[in-house]
Amino acid sequence: MTMVQCLSLPDANAKCVMDCETQTYNSICAADDKGTTKTYRNVCVMKVENCLQNANFQKISDKECP
């Protein structure tokens, strides 16, 4: 038997869907063009948040932000 799970998402957010739960926990530090820094669980989570929030965080380090 095959089970299929369907999600109903607004069209605007559909392009932002990525399966970050299967990604390894690998903290990164990212910064935006204003100099704001933020720690993310991994690059995938950063990309999804960038998409959903129309943000532009970029990875600057392979560790948590200070």
TrEMBL record:
Q: Where are the transmembrane segments?
A: none
* Domain Kazal-like intervals: 16-65
Q: Listed GO molecular functions?
A: Wnt-protein binding
From the Swiss-Prot or TrEMBL record, give the protein name.
Uncharacterized protein, isoform B
Its cellular-component GO annotations read: extracellular space
Q: Which BP terms in the Gene Ontology apply to this protein?
A: establishment of protein localization to extracellular region; imaginal disc-derived wing margin morphogenesis; positive regulation of canonical Wnt signaling pathway
Q: Which domain of life is it from?
A: Eukaryota
Q: Which organism is it from?
A: Drosophila ananassae
Query: SUPFAM superfamilies from the xrefs?
Result: Kazal-type serine protease inhibitors
Q: Which Pfam families match?
A: Kazal_2
What InterPro entries does the record tag this protein with?
A: Kazal_dom (IPR002350), Kazal_dom_sf (IPR036058)
